[in-house]
Amino acid sequence: MSTMNSDPNELMELERETYRRYQVGDIDGMIDMLAENAQVCPPDMDAIFGRENQRALFKQIAATPGVEFIWEPIEAHVSASNDMGYVYGSVHWKMPGDTSLVKGKYISIWTKVDGRWMNAVEIRNANASEQP
Q: How many other CB atoms are found less than 10 A from the CB of residue 130?
C-alpha cells in the first residue's frame, strides 16, 4: 500500500485484508498489521495490550469450535496530516453455546508507523438491542 496521500479507501482495504487474513487462519499475518503496543477492547473483557497478547487471543478464538467472528468496515476517515485515521464498521460474533449471532459495531484506529498504516486500537461492543 502507498505510504503517501492516503485516502479513506486505503484504510477500508486494510480492514478487509485484516479480515481476509483472519478468515484463512493467517493470524500471524493479521497480527503483523498491528502496531507494537496495539490494544483491542473486546466486549465484556478487559483491554488486551500488545501484539503477542493479541496473537494468543486471536489464535485461541480461531481454534475454538463453534466461534463465529465476522466484521465489515462501513466508512473510514483519514486526518488532514495523513498520519492517523479510523474505520467504523459492523461486527458479529457467536460463542460456543450461543443460539444466534450478536450484532455490534466497532471502531478501528490506524496510525502511520515509519510510513506504514498500523492498527493501534480496536474497540468492539454489542448494539444496545443485543444487550441482555
A: 14
Q: Distance between CA atoms of 82 and 89, rounded to whole angstroms? A: 21
CA-nearest of 6, 130, 124, 129 to 57 is 124
**Position 38 in a domain:** yes
How far, in Å, are 10, 14, 31, 82 from residue 5 at the CA level?
10, 15, 24, 7
For residue 129, what pLDDT is reported? Answer: 79
Residue 48's DSSP bridge partners are 40
pTM score of the predicted model: 0.87
CATH number at residue 25: 3.10.450.50
In the prediction, which pLDDT does 4 show? 46
